[in-house]
Specification:
The protein is an alpha/beta fold and 352 residues long. The chain contains 7 helices and 16 strands.
Length: 352
């Protein structure tokens, strides 16, 4: 048997003086499949685009394009909708990219959002296109199409060919546990991603692991979100911060519902489930460029009752490094489960 190639990696520092922010966010996870469709209610055209959950950046470009394509089809079928002012509900990455795309096409748009708090710029940055466990074959096909289109758009940004996003994604090594399938099979067949190689990563401190090495896209959410905010400002797209209780209360006859977790109430969608996530950002890291890699693996930990369970451990090179992650289904509070930060730190310290 051939010996595994050894990859020497610099581990992140995770002592007390290296812990920066402890971040909690709520993702809008929709069971089986995110929602991108339209409906007409009381003569208003509602374009829904929400429910991507923890894969919002992964499916961003496809979902926004599909949503706007549906609007254009309605305009062709009903010319009275042409040149009507458009309201986008939500100021996350979906709302901003939708507004920019429509404005670039000559539409009159405005954004309305409850406040300036969004989860978009807090994500870790993994491109993770895997479908839901309970998705049907038709829904799985949508996940694959959505991920591949968005992946190619990120490649366009990397090549410097995107019309307004100039920075954010890059191709870096990504090390996945041997029992984790990130969903890249179709990408490999299409030649978008190279087939993984089994390697051994060595942190130089006695910790070594056999993993699958991919070279794939790291999406820096902070940089990408800043690019969208910059362009919204350059195009003078207005953002009105106030709470929307019903879509029918808005004066526009065309409305994009990109409200994330708020879309659950606005669309009365029972399939949307809040999923709480925890991340920890790092600081005071010596030479962060030495940790230009991603890790996604399972580790075994004990729960409060002393039982073993598998938990996911992330590392990504966002800023000086980010650790995670959790998926607390049904939890809508930003302050609950603070103990999860201690669990993240423990499993990362044990791993690295």
């Amino acid at each position: 048997m051939a010996k595994l190639r050894i990859i020497h990696l610099e581990p992140p520092r995770i002592s007390h003086e290296h812990i920066d922010q402890k971040i909690t966010c709520i993702r809008a996870h929709r069971e089986r499949l995110f929602r991108v469709d339209t409906e007409i209610i009381n003569n208003k055209l509602i374009c829904h685009n929400y429910g991507q959950g923890g894969a919002g950046w992964t499916f961003l470009f496809f979902c926004v394009k599909k949503s706007i394509d549906m609007l254009e089809l309605h305009i062709k079928q009903n010319h009275k909708l042409a040149n009507k002012p458009i309201c986008i509900v939500g100021a996350g990455c979906y709302g901003l990219l939708t507004a920019i795309t429509l404005a670039r096409a000559g539409q009159i748009v405005r954004i309305i959002a409850k406040d300036g708090y969004v989860s978009s710029n807090k994500a870790a940055g993994f491109f993770f296109p895997r479908h839901r466990k309970v998705s049907t074959p038709e829904e799985i096909s949508v996940f694959q199409s959505a991920g591949m289109y968005s992946y190619q758009m990120y490649q366009q940004i990397i090549r410097g060919e995107h019309p307004f996003i100039k920075t954010g994604p890059r191709i870096i090594p990504a090390y996945y546990g041997l029992d984790i399938d990130p969903g890249f099979g179709p990408y490999i067949k299409k030649g978008l991603v190279k087939a993984p190689k089994k390697v051994r990563i060595d942190f130089g401190n006695g910790k070594t692991y056999d993993v699958n090495e991919y070279h794939t896209i790291f999406m820096n959410p902070s940089e990408l979100f800043a690019e969208l905010q910059r362009y919204v400002k350059e195009m003078n797209i207005p953002i009105d911060y106030k709470e929307v209780t019903t879509l029918q209360s808005l004066p526009e006859s065309i409305i994009f519902n990109c409200a994330g977790i708020g879309a659950k109430k606005l669309a009365q969608d029972r399939r949307v489930i809040p999923v709480q996530g925890h991340l920890i950002t790092l600081k005071n890291q010596p030479d962060p460029q030495k940790r230009n890699y991603m890790i996604n693996t399972k580790v075994t930990m004990l729960d409060a009752e002393g039982r073993t369970r598998d938990e996911i451990m992330y590392y990504a090179p966002k800023h000086e490094g980010v650790l995670g992650i959790t998926f607390k289904r049904g939890e809508h509070s930003l302050t609950a489960n603070f103990h999860e930060f201690d669990r993240i730190i423990k499993r990362c310290r044990d791993y690295f």
